[in-house]
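Hi R.,

Here's the chain you asked about this morning:
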Amino acid sequence: MCRWLAYTGSPVLVHDLLYRPEHSLIVQSLSSTMGAETTNGDGFGLGWYTDLPTPGVIRSTEPAWNDRNLEEISAHIRSPCVLAHVRASSGSAVQQTNCHPFRHGRWLFMHNGSIDGFLTLKYDLAMAVDPVLFAGIEGSSDTEMFFHLALTLGLEEDPVGAVSRAVGLIEETGRRHGVDFPLQMTVGMTDGETFYAFRYSSQGRSRTLFHSADIATLQQQYPGNQMLRRLSEDAKVVVSEPLSDLKGAWREIPESTCLVLHKGQEQMLPFEPQPRLVES
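And here is the predicted structure, written out as C-alpha cells:
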C-alpha cells in the first residue's frame, strides 16, 4: 500500500527525518520490509508546520528516492510537526492530486490502506460529503474521500469521534454493497498541535504501525547515536515500519487503537467504528 512517517517535538531538520535513519522513509520508498508492496514509488508528499496559519505541503508523482527537489527542500526546513508519505497506489491514478497528505485549513491527513470496492461505493460516499466541502475534493483517491467524510462528520471539533463515524459510514455502505471487509487503514492526521494515529481494519488484520519509545531513555541507552542526540526529550515519531534496528526503540501500536500525541504526552485509546446507516 504505502508507508508514512509523522514527527512532533522541538523543531527538527526535515532532511534528518527523511534521509538519515538507516531504514529511512526514503529507503522504504524503494525497499519496504513490512508493507504489502516492497516498492512505494507512485509519488510522495510532505507536510510541515511553522508559525504561519496553515501548513506547507509539497506533493509529487516522482518516486521519493529519485527526487532531488525533495532532498534539497527538506534540507532547508525546520519544523516541530512533520508528516511524510510515500505512495503505492491501490487503484487510483498516479497524479499529484492523489498524493498524500491532504490539507484542509490547519489539518493534514494521510492514510495507508484502502476502501475495498471503492469504485462501487464511491457515489454513495460522495453523496454523504457536505456539499460545502465537496468542492475541495481535487483527486480521485479513496483517502481524499475518507478525509472529507471525516470533515463532514465533525473532524475539526471531535477528531477521534469524526474518524470513528466516517469508518462506520464506510463499513455500512460497503456491506450494503456486499463488501465483507470494506476498510483497511492506518491513518495519521494533525492540526499542528495534536497528532492522531489510527490502526484499524474491518478484518482485524491491520497494516503495521509503530511509535517511538521515550527519547530520554533511548538517549541514555545509546549515548553515541547521533540521530537520537538531535531529538528533544518530548519528540515522538510514528511510522509504518521502524526506522532503525535499535533494541527497544519502537513499540507496535495495537490493533483497533488510536494514539494521541500532544506536547510530548501520549494516550492510547480503543478505537471502534460508530455505525451510521446511510440511505440507499
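One quick note: The two ends are 30 Å apart (CA to CA).

Cheers,
M.
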